[in-house]
Amino acid sequence: MSASRREFLLGLAATGVLANSSAWASMSCPFRLAVINDELTEDFDRACQIASQDFGLSWIELRGMWKKNITELNAKEIADAQQILEKYKLRVTDIASPLFKVDWPGAPLSKNSPKRDQFHADYDFKQQDTLLDHCIELAKAFHTDRIRCFDFWRLDDPKPYRAAMNDKLREAAEKCAKHDLILLLENEMACNTGTAEEAVGVLNAVPNKNFMLNWDPGNAATFPDNTPYPNGYNLLPMERIGHCHCKDVKRKPDGKYEWAAVGSGVVDWVGQFRALQHDGYHYAVSLETHWRGAGTPEASTRISMQGLKDSLKKADISC
Predict the structure, then answer these.
(1) What is the pLDDT of residue 16?
(2) What is the pLDDT at residue 26?
(3) pLDDT band, very low/low/confident/very high, at 6 (cuts 50, 70, 90)
(4) Within the chain, where are the H helices?
(5) Which residues contact 124 (CB under 8 A, 6 or more apart)?
(6) Do 284 and 34 touch, CB atoms closer than 8 A?
(7) CB-based burial label for 260 (10 Å; 0-12, 13-18, 19+)
(8) What sequence ranges are listed for the domain Xylose isomerase-like TIM barrel (predicted)?
(9) What burial class does residue 143 get, using C-beta atoms within 10 Å of its C-beta: 0-12 exposed, 13-18 middle, 19+ buried?
(10) Domain locations in the chain?
């Protein structure tokens, strides 16, 4: 938010005009409350309209639009997206790229290696350096300082390859640092870092200050008997958390899981939000619905956003 707009809003707040407005809530929220755009719809204008006007957000996370991964957009589509963001006065939390969501070369083929692309992205290992360069360009184009990545499809035994994987992540972080960008590693159950415990090991091995964690308690909760908060969260170095995804999980009697509306699953989001606020976290809390129980992506995301906001309210956090 610009200084002039902030001063204007503060002035209105002082007179009571903004007491119940979404603009005031956005300004006073300790987090960058956001939603991943294509969790709502592939129609980018519609997603931004809902995020801004219905959800009252000032931030949005970019992953895909118009049935394309963000890394596949052409110059005109990037320009169109920039205009839409300006139209709805939305800022971008990060580029939610598919970087390093590929098989590690020379390792046994992962059972998580997809037979199709992921969110309209289909890259192999040899393309990753070029992909990172493009993500850096996209971060600059969309005025964000963050790029999301993974650490390769999950192996039954990653130990023989872990040091080399860490070297690759370190190399990528160093390249990002030259452009004043932060590289965010998401803990993803289908990749080699799925839990807080695993994340700690990678963060210790890749100590670059601009290499941070995209903490996803919902992903960690897909592992049986894993408690993302408080157990997992309390292991994490607070200063290395640079982004947070919000989703929820229900566990089945057979040990498997299914996605759930935020606030209706096993993740203690009220406790997690309180802890993040207490620890001074002030980056994104971004809704990644995944749950489709309401029938459509938009309807399901609306319910999950309400669950997210209800959890914030129960945590005594104004957003």
Answers:
(1) 45
(2) 58
(3) very low
(4) 3-15, 22-28, 37-40, 44-49, 75-87, 128-141, 159-177, 196-205, 217-220, 269-278, 297-314
(5) 102, 103
(6) yes
(7) buried
(8) 53-309
(9) exposed
(10) 25-314
Check residue 255 and give its pLDDT.
Answer: 86
CA-to-CA distance for 58 and 215, rounded, in angstroms? 21
**Dist CA 241 CA 211 (whole Å):** 9
What does 243-296 look like in DSSP terms, one character per residue? EEEE-EEEE-TTS-EEEE-TTSSS--HHHHHHHHHHTT--SEEEE-----TTSS
Cα–Cα dist 273/215, whole Å: 12
- Sign of the four-CA dihedral 139, 140, 142, 143: positive
Residue pLDDT, tens place only, 121-147: 556 899 999 999 999 999 999 999 999
**Residue 119: closest CA among 37, 229, 224:** 37
Residues 6+ apart with CB under 8 A from 231: 196
Domain 25-314: CATH superfamily, name plus number = Divalent-metal-dependent TIM barrel enzymes (3.20.20.150)
Could you give the CA distance from residue 79 to residue 181 in angstroms, rounded to a whole number?
A: 21
Q: pLDDT digit string (tens) for 30-88? A: 999 999 999 999 999 999 999 999 999 999 999 999 999 999 999 999 999 999 999 99
